[in-house]
Design a protein that fits this description.
- The structure is a single chain.
- This protein is α/β, with parallel strands linked by helices.
- The chain folds into two domains: 138 residues, Aspartate Aminotransferase, domain 1 (Alpha-Beta Complex), CATH 3.90.1150; 273 residues, 3-Layer(aba) Sandwich (Aspartate Aminotransferase, domain 2).
- It has 15 helices and 15 strands.
- Helix 3 runs antiparallel to helix 11 and helix 14 packs across helix 15.
- It is globular.
- The two termini are 33 Å apart.
- 42% of the residues are buried.
- The structure holds pyridoxal-5'-phosphate.
């Protein structure tokens, strides 16, 4: 190995601490050193290419290092790099807010910028909470969320999370909130099947609302797919019924579109597929096409107006971040929206979506694959020890990790979610790319299956 990389990797070992990583896993092996990226590929220190099959944690939209985004960033840096956003404004923030309002349902009129997916959700939770305080409904202090839901790693968003694998050490810190069953059809708690489903998993919500609506602010949910919880795709009808119930009981609905926004599910936002008008929409990841951190929490005029009063009334929303509405990140987001139009991204990707959603079922041939599910540019394979009994692998087998390691040999970055292997592809993926990715992924899963069978 080139001595420069050797030294850098030993400095990494000495000083870095990586997210969601047991550093002991790298006691002997090196971390994958990524030197550059272009389009759908990442390249390591030896210039070996890897398909970025998970869009670098679901944020890359138009491929890596898009020239239009690069130009937008450099142009912006000639003009304005950063300015605090309390009592000041700038052109990019105004234009992006206008565009986001135009792209979302007509009840949405207001945009609050922050930095990442967690803060987008945290802002929605805090706004909902303070809305009820500001209008005098002080007893409304609780939230509802779903098992297998994920909204971030801040203490506020962990408390409404449903992924103990990520958050269990912190449970003593969580505020009291309500958790309802997930519409996880493959492992339906009511032993039903999609064909005969009567949405029994919504009954606990209805019961809860009947009993306790007066103390509930909002429900937070990822529309159409619970992403970090295991790429759990659920029926649209579930979301429509859930939204109706909340409306009936006058509870805010927060759509966390951090993972689903910007074309991932086949429409620009997932909410378009259900015709629901939530009270809050949380955006991040794909907002800047994955180039710089930025987030937005969108809401309604009614909610905004509950904070609008004389200063001394104490109704101001006291929340902000140093980089709120950072002009460079905003320039990136505006460029990305233009690329969507210029490259006709959503239409262009349609045949690739059809191919992915059709071909994914081929993976059911493998004994190790218990379930396949998908929507838009996402397909997921849940690996099981026993297909008939839907029995999971014991955690010490680390089947997902095995797939990840084998994937690297094939030039794929297949970072798993526990035992769920998934593809979440950039919108620039072509049919040719997809065919190669599917073939290689199949080979990797088959290889792990054979290894486990001894
Ligand atoms: C649906 C959803 N919400 C929130 C977040 C948190 O975003 P971030 O990691 O940018 O804080 C994620 C991250 O994966 C997510 O998928």
């Amino acid at each position: 190995m080139d001595s420069r990389y050797k030294e850098l990797l030993s400095l990494d070992r000495a000083h870095l601490w990586h997210p969601y990583t047991q550093m002991k896993d790298f006691e002997k092996d090196d971390l994958l050193f990524i030197k550059r990226a272009k389009g759908i590929f990442l390249y390591d220190k030896d210039d070996k290419s890897y398909y970025d099959t998970i869009s670098s944690w679901w944020c890359i939209i138009h491929g890596h290092c898009h020239p239009k985004i690069k130009k937008a960033i450099t142009n912006q840096l000639d003009l304005l790099d950063q300015v605090q956003f309390a009592a000041t404004t700038h052109e990019g923030a105004i234009l992006l807010a206008k565009k986001l309002v135009e792209l979302t349902p007509d009840n949405i009129t207001r945009v609050f910028f922050s930095d990442d997916g967690s803060t987008a959700c945290e802002v929605a939770l805090k706004m909902s909470f303070q809305y009820w305080q500001n209008i005098g409904k002080k007893e409304k202090q609780k939230f509802i969320s779903l098992h297998h839901g994920y909204h971030g790693d801040t203490i506020g968003t962990m408390a409404v999370g449903g992924t103990p694998g990520f958050h269990s050490p912190f449970e003593p810190l969580f505020y009291d909130s309500y958790h309802i069953p997930s519409p996880y059809c493959y492992r339906c708690s009511y032993n039903s099947s999609p064909e005969k489903c009567s949405f029994l998993c919504l009954e606990p919500l209805e019961k809860l609302l009947k009993q306790s609506a007066s103390e509930i602010c909002a429900l937070i949910i990822e529309p159409l797919i619970q992403a970090a919880g295991g790429m759990i795709v659920y029926p649209k009808e579930y979301l429509i019924r859930l939204a109706d119930l909340l409306k009936r009981y006058n509870i805010h609905l927060i759509f966390d579109e951090v993972a689903t926004g910007f074309g991932r599910t086949g429409s620009f936002f997932a909410l378009e597929q259900v015709g629901v008008k939530p009270d809050f929409i949380c955006l991040s990841k794909g907002l800047t096409a994955g180039c710089l951190p930025l987030a937005a929490t969108l809401t309604t005029e009614e909610i905004y107006q509950a904070f609008y009063d004389d200063y001394e009334k104490g109704k101001t929303f006291f929340h902000g971040h140093t980089f709120t509405a950072n002009p460079v990140a905003i320039a990136c987001a505006l460029a990305s929206l233009e690329i969507f139009k210029e490259e006709d991204s959503l239409n262009r990707v349609k045949p690739v979506i059809d191919m992915l959603q059709g071909e994914k079922y081929r993976f059911m041939d493998l004994d190790i694959v218990g379930d396949v599910r998908g929507i838009g540019m996402i397909a997921a394979f849940e690996l099981v020890k026993n297909k008939e009994k839907k029995e999971s692998f014991p955690s010490n087998i680390r089947v997902g990790w095995k797939v990840y390691k084998k994937g690297l040999n094939e030039g794929l970055i297949l970072r798993p979610l526990g035992d769920v292997i998934y593809l979440l592809l950039p919108l620039i993926t072509t049919e040719l790319d997809l065919s190669d990715i599917l073939e290689k992924t199949y080979k990797v899963l088959k290889g792990v299956q054979e290894e486990l069978n001894g």
